[in-house]
């Protein structure tokens, strides 16, 4: 089910999947906010120009137009970077899309610090913003297999969806038998000591940490949580039960996203193990040359997950060191 | 019909003693034209961008028999879908929203949708207000509509020079309005918004166009109701019982003359 690292990568799995589905579904329309190639929908524009709309650098209007298209029975897929998709047209998403529960699919590229482009380009709060909105479904997929599947998985959901997608070369973590579920978080490994809940790009470093910790005799259960809203509370409760510690890992601020969602589930359940959250902590990041540098600096590396688990279990001595190959897992890097 | 819209609007706000009467007074002729002449039910669409204007839309719809008197009487009341500021529960309209500046994008989207669906006959009408032009989204939508030459889009701009903080022109200079929209690829008309035949003629002339049309309707939030005090707040007029009685009497007399 899970491939072994180093993971091979695939280019533009989203753009190819959207085009494939749109060829079968004439109700799909594609809007782009001046980031067409960057959001992989140059493939759509070239093949189906009559259903492709340049909205230009005008995100508020793009959301409003998409909402009206949806009211007439079309299914608009709206594309820009995650920062621009969520921060700029927030009121438009709330009032024109989410409140009427229209099937607008908002695709935000470059999640978290996968962009070395600095705070203006790093969507570190997009999950939090979208998770706050009633009717919205929020998805953060982990690899190319899930990226390919997410298009078909969301196309017929009755309400709006926000999907955050990594750009560029996308690692393949799962084999072809894997099925993305929008309702069930998936327990990928068993481990009696600790459960790590990971979403999106943090699944690869979480799996890397699991291997390092297993070698040190610590059993880590990894749960893939691609859907942060609505959260699969039952699986989270079950996977946390009886563990000595629980950890969340997200390429995002620890407030408002996966860490908060898991914390809410466990606190409402009561009697849960202590929770540690891996992610950005009340800080903006910065521009840089490479993704791995930022993942290291802002606490999102494989080693950070290893250290957090080690500390949560009150183990003595220094934590095991993740091999360099795990530190530079393909899932941690994306070009601007 | 404009007088009848004003009379219904007064009756709608009278029970609460305040409300968005000014919006109905300034836009009565525009809604009289939209509902009385322009809109083809089931074919054309109507967007009322500022949700505060639904009072006028409902009053006009009631004149056309599209909504009953009993339902109209629930305007603004607890549990009523006829909310004072338009929402998704609002009947009759294709889009309205209390968060201002969003309606033109919806209208643009409907006009674009007709094109994508291959429908060449429908018109999309939108009513927007001058205060909304302060919102950047309106200009995003205007650029988009001009670029795509959405000729089936007809926009009535209720230029009543009124917003919450005072006269629009004391807060932001919008003029020259027509030149701005022309520069964005629109055709424009500028009319006395209380001259119903002028508004009707402008709408008629806009129907067959290769470019979207903006009809600037010059209006006042106290027009057609002489008994209002000269300092009435156009955005949110107070209508105590004595004033409501006087207004109903004045408008009933006016209606009898027509």
Structure description:
Chain A has helices at residues 13-24, 42-47, 59-71, 82-86, 90-98, 126-131, 144-154, 203-215, 233-240, 258-269, 291-297, 302-312, 324-327; strands at residues 9-11, 28-32, 52-54, 75-81, 105-109, 137-140, 161-165, 169-171, 186-187, 194-198, 220-224, 227-229, 245-253, 275-280. With 336 residues, chain A is α/β, with parallel strands linked by helices. Chain A starts with 8 loop residues before the first strand and ends in a 9-residue tail after the last helix. Chain A has 13 helices and 14 strands. In chain A, α9 (233-240) crosses α10 (258-269). Chain A is globular, with a radius of gyration of 19 Å. A 7-stranded mixed β-sheet of chain A has the order 3-2-4-5-7-6-12, with helices on both faces. A 5-stranded mixed β-sheet of chain A has the order 9-11-10-13-14, sandwiched between helices. A two-stranded antiparallel sheet of chain A has the order 1-8. Chain B has a single domain, classed as Thiamin diphosphate (ThDP)-binding fold, Pyr/PP domains (Rossmann fold). Chain B is 42% helix and 15% strand. Chain B has 10 helices and 8 strands. Chain B has helices spanning 2-13, 21-38, 54-63, 69-72, 103-116, 136-147, 168-171, 177-183, 196-206, 241-257; strands spanning 18-19, 45-50, 95-97, 124-129, 153-159, 187-192, 213-218, 237-238. The termini of chain B are close together. The mean pLDDT of chain B is 95. Classes of the chains: A alpha/beta (336), B alpha/beta (258). At the A-B interface, α3 and α5 of A face α5 and α6 of B.
């Amino acid at each position: 089910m899970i491939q072994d690292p180093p993971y091979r990568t695939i280019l533009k799995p989203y753009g190819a999947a959207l085009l494939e589905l749109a060829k079968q579904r004439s109700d799909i329309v594609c809007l782009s906010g001046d980031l067409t190639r960057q959001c992989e929908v140059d493939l759509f524009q070239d093949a189906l120009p009559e259903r492709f709309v340049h909205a230009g650098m005008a995100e508020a209007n793009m959301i409003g137009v998409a909402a009206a298209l949806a009211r007439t029975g079309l299914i608009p897929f709206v594309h820009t970077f995650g920062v621009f998709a969520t921060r700029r047209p927030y009121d438009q998403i709330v009032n024109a899309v989410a409140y009427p529960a229209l099937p607008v699919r908002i695709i935000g590229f470059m999640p978290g610090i996968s962009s070395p482009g600095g705070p203006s380009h790093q969507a570190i709060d997009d999950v939090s913003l979208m998770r706050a909105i009633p009717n919205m479904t929020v998805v953060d997929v982990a690899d190319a297999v899930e990226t390919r599947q997410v298009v078909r998985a969301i196309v017929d959901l009755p309400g709006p969806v926000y999907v955050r997608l990594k750009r560029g070369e996308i690692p393949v973590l799962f084999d072809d038998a894997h099925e993305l579920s929008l309702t069930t978080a998936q327990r990928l490994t068993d481990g009696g000591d600790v459960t790590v809940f990971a979403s999106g790009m943090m699944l690869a470093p979480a799996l890397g940490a699991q291997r390092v910790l297993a070698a040190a005799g610590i059993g880590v259960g990894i749960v893939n949580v691609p859907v942060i809203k609505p959260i699969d509370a039952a699986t989270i409760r079950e996977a946390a039960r009886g563990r000595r510690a629980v950890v969340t890992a997200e390429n995002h601020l620890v407030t408002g996203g996966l860490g908060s969602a898991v914390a809410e589930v466990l606190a409402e359940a009561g009697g849960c193990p202590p929770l540690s959250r891996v992610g950005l902590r009340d800080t903006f990041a910065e521009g840089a040359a490479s993704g791995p540098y930022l993942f290291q600096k802002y606490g999102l590396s494989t080693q950070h997950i290893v250290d957090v688990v080690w500390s949560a279990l009150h183990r003595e001595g220094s934590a095991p060191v993740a091999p360099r190959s795990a530190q530079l897992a393909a899932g941690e890097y994306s070009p601007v | 019909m404009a007088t009848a819209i004003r009379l219904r609007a007064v009756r709608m706000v009278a029970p609460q003693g305040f409300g968005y009467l000014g919006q109905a007074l300034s836009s009565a002729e525009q809604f009289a034209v939209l509902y009385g002449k322009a809109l083809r039910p089931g074919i054309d669409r109507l967007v009322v961008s500022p949700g505060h204007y639904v009072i006028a839309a409902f009053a006009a719809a009631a004149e056309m028999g599209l909504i009953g008197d009993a339902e109209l009487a629930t305007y603004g009341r607890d549990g009523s879908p006829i909310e004072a500021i338009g929402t998704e529960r609002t009947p009759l309209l294709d889009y309205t929203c209390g968060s201002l500046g969003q309606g033109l994008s919806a209208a643009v989207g409907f006009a674009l949708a007709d094109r994508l669906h291959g429908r060449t006959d429908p018109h999309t009408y939108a009513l927007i207000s001058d205060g909304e032009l302060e919102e950047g989204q309106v200009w995003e939508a205007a650029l988009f509509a001009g670029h795509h030459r959405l000729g089936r889009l007809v926009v009535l701009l209720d230029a009543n020079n009124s917003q919450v903080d005072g006269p629009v022109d004391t807060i932001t200079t919008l003029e020259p309005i027509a030149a701005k929209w022309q520069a964005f690829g629109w055709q424009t008309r500028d009319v006395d918004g209380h001259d119903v035949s002028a508004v009707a003629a402008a709408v008629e002339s806009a129907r067959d166009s290769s470019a979207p049309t903006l009809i600037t309707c010059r209006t006042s939030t106290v027009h057609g109701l002489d008994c209002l005090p000269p300092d009435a707040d156009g955005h949110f007029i107070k209508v105590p019982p004595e004033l409501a009685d006087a207004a109903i009497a004045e408008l009933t007399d006016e209606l009898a003359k027509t």
